[in-house]
Every structure is written in C-alpha cells, then in structure tokens.
Amino acid sequence: MEKEQQPDIHTRTRRLVGSDAFERLTQTNVLLVGIGGVGSWSAESLVRSGFTRLTIADPDYICASNVNRQIMATSLNIGQPKVEVMRNRLLEINPDAKITAIRKRFCSETAEEFRLEKYDYIIDAIDCIPEKALLIRTALKSGATLISSMGAALKTDPARISVDEFHKVKGCPLAKALRTYFKKNCGFPEGKFMCVYSEERLTNRTHDPLDPGNGTVAHVTASFGLRIASLIFNQVTGL
Q1: Which stretches of the chain are assigned E, i.e. beta strand?
Q2: What share of the chain is helix, strand, coil (3-state, %, to 5)?
Q3: From residue 51, how far is each of 22, 33, 69 by CA, in Å?
Q4: pLDDT less than 50: residues of the chain
Q5: Three-state SS string across 155-179, please?
Q6: Taking the complete model, does pTM exceed 0.85, yes or no?
Q7: Which long-range contacts (CB under 8 A, 24 or more apart) does 209-213 make?
Q8: Which domains does the chain have, with CATH numbers?
Q9: Helix, strand or coil for residue 45?
Q10: Which pLDDT does position 6 carry in this prediction?
C-alpha cells in the first residue's frame, strides 16, 4: 500500500510567505553570538521558521541557573556546552539545516576567526560590555545587518518591549553602560543598528552568593529573542 503523502515541516510557513520569500529564508546566513536567555529563543525561532544557515557562538556550559529561561537548558544537560546542546536541538527540528557551533568567546583575540563579512545578519545577544561593544563595532564594518539585544533582566512585562535604533534607546541600564563604554574607550561605532529593549526596571528581591546575576524570567527573555527573530524574518520575506 502506498504511503500517504504528508506535509513537510515548513508547509505552514511557506503558505504564509510564499515560495520565493521562503527560498530567501533558506539562503540567508545568520550569526548569533550568545546562546543564553535571549539568543537561544532567537535560534529556535529562526530554524523553525525556515532559516537553514545559522552559526551559533558561545563559550559557556549549561548551569542550573540557566534552566529557568534558556530553551535548551534542562536539569539533565547541566554541565554540557551550550552551543553543542543547542545545535543538537536545532538539528532535531530540521536535520537538513546547516548549523555551525562555535564554542568560543567573541573578543579581540578571536574576532577575526568569526569572519563576520560572510553573514547577512548578525545577532548580538552578549551581556559582557567590552565584548558587546567590540562585536557591534566590528559587525557594523562587515556589511551585515546587525540587531542587538539590550538588557532583558529585571523585567516581567513583555508588553513593554520595544525596538529602536541604538541612539534612541532609553531607560535601559545596559544601553546606558554601553554608551559610557563607547565614550570612554573606543568612540561610538559608525553606522546605525536596531535594538530590542525595555524601559521596565525592577530590582532583585533576594540575594544569592552562589549566583550574583540579576533576576530573569523566560517569558521576557524569550520575547526579546522572538522579537529579534521576527525582525530578521520580516526583513527577509518583505512582510
């Protein structure tokens, strides 16, 4: 008996955007630096939406405090490299995707190895200010379209997430710290880039000496990541 034909994993996306736009998704080359609470959700959304050329970079290993907000982090894979776990997850979604995992920190010693000029889009999901500043400055010279995530911690309301050009971002401590760093250390980058951010500012209500990081929740970090993915998706498809 002949096997009944089934729709493929991208049937619904192709129906929404059309065959030509979907083909552009599959040919778009994206670099995502930082597979954390924001970046992991961006990666997931991109691959589920039809992107097949994705490079993910992060030097860290999954720890217990990642489980509350990072899509690939579970209690079972604590201690494993983030990029390897994320790559395996993405290939389970689409085995035909070309997912490159780079277990390195983007810094002055490694920046040239990333070959930013070969990408169409670069997503900055880094928390460390010096590395974030370096990625922004380097990406803007590469010819790629840069989208940067500002701080997603100490927030609970996804409805307050906004998108704007970096110089117009307000109310975000990370953006403020980044501007100060640019001013004191290397000058402001040449060129404009879009940022996802929120003006919401809460405070930590408890202190944990084992984890000095700020409080975060998945529905906010995920919303940041999905907003970034949506910006790229809409630009590529023209929607």
Answers
A1: 29-33, 53-57, 98-102, 121-124, 145-149, 161-165, 194-198
A2: 40, 15, 45
A3: 9, 16, 23
A4: 1
A5: CCCHHHEEEEEHHHCCCCHHHHHHH
A6: yes
A7: 211/65, 213/65, 213/153
A8: 18-237 (3.40.50.720)
A9: helix
A10: 80
